[in-house]
Design a protein that fits this description.
This protein is an alpha+beta fold and 104 residues long. It is built from four helices and four strands, in the order E-H-E-H-H-E-E-H. Strands 1-2 form a two-stranded parallel ribbon. The model has no long low-confidence stretch (mean pLDDT 85).
Length: 104
């Protein structure tokens, strides 16, 4: 699994802390983003990372999806399924914004 990030990203530090706590940090490769990558390469990488994410989520069991964690807005009793929904909606928001920008 790849985690693309800006080297100073506080989000990546939180993700890695959670991964360490769950014992899956060895499955994650961090990849520093490069602002000079071509749009075609970015899109190809996006499709690759998305396929890996879909495969990971598809492999989760019902027990996995009911694991609880702390979300800054939803609180300390948030189930993993809700985290996944938030990630999905976050991506949809960016796609919506990109579509608007390209169509304006």
């Amino acid at each position: 699994m790849k985690l693309h990030h800006s080297p100073a990203s506080p989000y990546v530090r939180k993700v890695m802390a959670c991964a360490i706590a769950r014992g899956i940090d060895g499955q994650i490769t961090t990849v520093a983003t490069n602002p000079h990558v071509s749009p075609a390469d970015l899109l190809a990488d996006f499709h690759s990372v998305r396929a890996e994410s879909v495969a990971l989520v598809s492999s989760l069991t019902d027990d996995d999806l009911t694991q609880r964690g702390n979300h800054p807005a939803l609180g300390p009793d948030t189930v993993l399924a809700d985290f996944i929904r938030i990630i999905f909606m976050h991506g949809k928001m960016h796609l919506r914004d990109l579509t608007r920008a390209l169509n304006s």
